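Usage example:
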Amino acid sequence: MAKPVVQTISSAIWKRAFVESFTKLNPRTMVKNPVMFVVEVGFVITLLLSMDPNLFGGHFGPGSGERAFDIVVTVILFVTILFANFAEAIAEGRGKAQAESLRKTKTDLTANRRREDGAYESIPATSLRKGDVVQVVAGELIPVDGEVIQGLGSVDESAITGESAPVIRGSGGDFSSVTGGTKLLSDVLTIRVTANPGESFLDKMIGLVEGASRQKTPNELALSVLLAALTLIFLIVVDTLKPMAHYVGGNRNIDVATLIALLVCLIPTTIGALLSAIGIAGMDRVIRFNVIAKSGKAVEAAGDVNTLILDKTGTITIGNRLASEFLLAGPHSSQELVEVAVLSSLFDETPEGRSVVDLGKENGVSFVREQYGDAENIEFSADTRMSGLNLPDGTELRKGAVDAIRNYVLVAGGTVPEDLESQTERIAREGGTPLAVAKDTEIYGLIYLKDIVKPGMHQRFEELRKMGIKTVMCTGDNPLTAATIAKEAGVDDFIAEAKPEDKMRLIREEQALGKLVAMSGDGTNDAPALAQADVGLAMNSGTQAAKEAGNMVDLDSDPTKLIEVVSIGKQLLITRGAITTFSIANDVAKYFAIIPAMFILMIPQLQALNIMHLTSPRSAILSALIFNAVIIPLLIPLAMRGVKYHPMSATAMLMRNLVLYGLGGIVAPFIGIKLIDLILTAFGWANI
Amino acid sequence: MTVQGVAAILVTVGLIFLLAIPLGGYIYRVFMGQRSKLEGVFGPLDRLLYRVIGVNPAVEMDWKAYIRSLLLVNFVMALFVYLIFRLQGVLPLNPNGIHGMSWDLAFNSAVAFITNTNWQSYAGEQSMSYLGQMVAVTYLQFTSAATGVVAVIAFLRGLVGHRGTSLGNFWVDFVRVQTRILLPLAFLFALLLVGLGLPETLLGAQAVHTLSGGTQIIARGPVASLEAIKQLGTNGGGFFNANSAHPFENPSPLTDVLEIIAMALIPVALITTFAQFIKSRAHAVMLYGLLVGMLLVATFIIYGAEAAGNPIVHHLLGISGPNMEGKEVRFGTSMSSLFTAVTTSTATGAVNNMLDSLTPLGGMVPLLLMMFNMVFGGIGVGLLNILMFLIITVFLSGLMVGRTPEIFGKKIESREVKLAAAAMLVHPFVILVPTAIAVATKMGTSSMLNPGLHGFSEVLYAFTSAAANNGSAFAGINANTVFYNVTLGVVMLLGRYVSMVAMLAMAGSLVKKAVIPESQGTLKTGTLSFGLVFIAVVVIVGALTFFPALAIGPIGEQLQMLSGQLAH
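Running the assembly step on the lines above writes:
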């Protein structure tokens, strides 16, 4: 598998979904979905009526057309159920296709296991147990999840992560975990097995994408309860209608097929048919985002998160500090300062050095390396704490830690400018790192190195604030520096000089207030906090312990993905809510179609309610029923894709979605049913 | 409709609020255990009562203990009253020599009063001794109202509790609501009514000689004291069969206005109490705005329909004007409409006009108000219904904004939805199923005096009234049969206690949860937009549930009337 992203639905998925629409008709499968099960029971009853229209009493003769009507209702109900099954099957399809390609990776893996006598034996990977030690040499697939206990090598993890650039794995530290199914590109690794067969990361991933280990999430359960209650209410409504109508109408009674049609139209079949598809597709979206959620509950919890704990380095800021400003000290011009600074960094390949050159360029100062081919580059060393360039004419250019440069200048017999001290303090106060710049015996000024907040972060924190999520930045920096970066990035709060225990304490405090907390982490020392957090996103590059502790693993190891996961979690809920609202709102129009039709003989005046002016009672009932069926496949794309989510206040979003899906849900079926009625009439089927 | 009529309606509704809002604050203080100015009177009285019934007021109860005490007390009281009804023929205070009730009528009546329904399958002046009126009826009119109040107070404690278990002490609540709220209010109101001409006597009916030379028996009795709590406790069970249309229960337009205010007083006040519990004025403003809106819309639909009159009558008799059949001239169309809307929205059931004689549309409004059962609703239980619908609305809205739904900082999860769904489900169940049984069986149809759509409406109304614990009737059916006494009795019991138990169970689950602090992502529930969603959910769920039944009842009847066809 190249990258776990399946963009389109292949024809194989279509085919399988089609077949499964039928296999899922098994009542034992259907009963798990009470709404659709009721439809299936209705289908069986109308099927029996198609054979004998007078099965449950009544005296319909051959001329009444009742049998034809029963048959048509039976067919529509059957198609309705197929549509529902198809929705679920197509949602599962993508996962199944992914799982298959993952499984291919898994088969035929062999391992060199170390025997007790120290020799290695070749065995199938499936017989490896936790604690076994295996050896892998370059070019082989790593047979199982484990921890490197000896060696250092580069590993191609593209089978799992889709990322083609190899990563370094080695014993000790935070980069010791390897995943089964990945390929060792160089060197030899000795690995201790950490997962029994069937429990490996690959196995879990297969289970997840396949939906085999899918359990209903808490909100899905609650919604199922509500849908079951609504179904029960409508069962009562329709069951009691027959005796009531009998009292009012005497002999002119309502036929069973019409009652079943009314029932199926009223019960929330649209959401009932799409509910599991929405859940599966939601998980699928997370997976396509290269995040493996260990449960649907975790994704849903992500949508509810109140507090987001993010590490500063690598998440909020890019890893290195960069030059942001030149500060003059002493008598020279700023042009001179920039020239000296850039020259001293000309051959400096560190990110800091490159950033000085870049900043110089912005200030209109640039030098070409070739012109200084005979200059001597002085590399940074921990000893001198400075770097620079010695020109052929003897000029020495240096940049480095302020006290190191000061000593350097004083030793050479120069003087220190008076304002150097105050400038240095200013930079420190603002949370930056000062680098002094000197040429021979003179100090020219300072380079202001600072943490660079990743582009777009400020806006994302703003969005999170709109969603009501508080962001907390964790950093090892001193409080001054931390405050500066926190302000610049726009986070709500920060912990400076943070130790792993501090994160844990913060999580517990927030949880005690009833809040849900999300965090990301990669190191072993993050593991307890990852486990404590409600949503713990572990980096795939991290340790096995961290991956075990978190309830999600990000294959791309990008901690900012937490923010996307939150959006996906919310989107999952909104999609469910929107289609539920739509489904219930649809009932209004269906009543206006069916009730006048139903009582046409008993209470002709009720035709006043036939505001859609449907052609005949039967075409009215059939149009409502057909609309009810057709709307399911029409909404499959929405269920799969999810409702669009824009960060905005809860009240604004409620109004927006209500207008769209509530009002839309009331209006759409009036139009749809009328259209279907027109088509039926045009084909002359209005009076079957 | 006339300007005076409209003005009378608006002024009366305004007066309700003027009195109810301060009362709501007072109720909150009573249950928060705050001292009142009359602590010197109430304090010792309460403590004496605790000692007499042998309870320790310091004990805190979880939801199970609370509902157990509530149900036990209700059962014992119902049993006591059942025995009085059965034995009233041989008990004292029976100057008119009335006989004991049959078992089914006694069951129906005991249930009717314990459930705050006050459905009366009997005519008071003919079938109830003074002992029954005072010790059974008036007594239960206090305790059933008290039961409703304490149930919702216990729920509110659960709603605002933070990781606790206690919903308060049932006995303390039950005593305080009587000594500090119901008894003082009823005492004052009864005195006022006596002053305005209602009889209050233990003497038997009086025989008088009329001008035309005949003899007439004028029924009387301890009317004012019953009338006071009948209205204040949203009971509705009248002393006389004609209820508040009877000149001894409701002699003048002034007493009419006072009785309307009294019915709505505590249900309206409890919204303020609720808002003080959750410390949110916004919720009170939102609920008041929407519920009064619904009440006024309902009132004006009745008023409009009645003022327009019946086109068939106009045509046949060559007259025009409002439909005055069954209305008292001293109240007129407007105050009859307001009384009808208030009595059915607050689940009181008192009537000052003949509901069966309303136009079909005018008669559908009280039916709908009882089907919704949450436009203020009965004392205490009305607010419980409002909260139940709020929770369902919050659940749906929470999904729409992408967050696990929360109400007042409490997460709504599967258990809460399950219980709310149970509470919601029971109402249509106990209306539609018995109605269907009644119209499908000989037992049911043999009591029906009218055929066709109107006859159906009458049965539907009876069961809706029983389910909503309202107690008003369309009449037109002889309800004093074993079938109707038993089915209506069971419907009243289920309509009252199933949702009460479900809601207290929910309170027991809510009280354990942490209160989540509000953030920007929290869906604000005290806003107009949320309120509109709330009303939409109530109306759509209600309409979807009852539309078919209404279509073959009042809607069909109204359409028939407009098309000029006589009801058959």
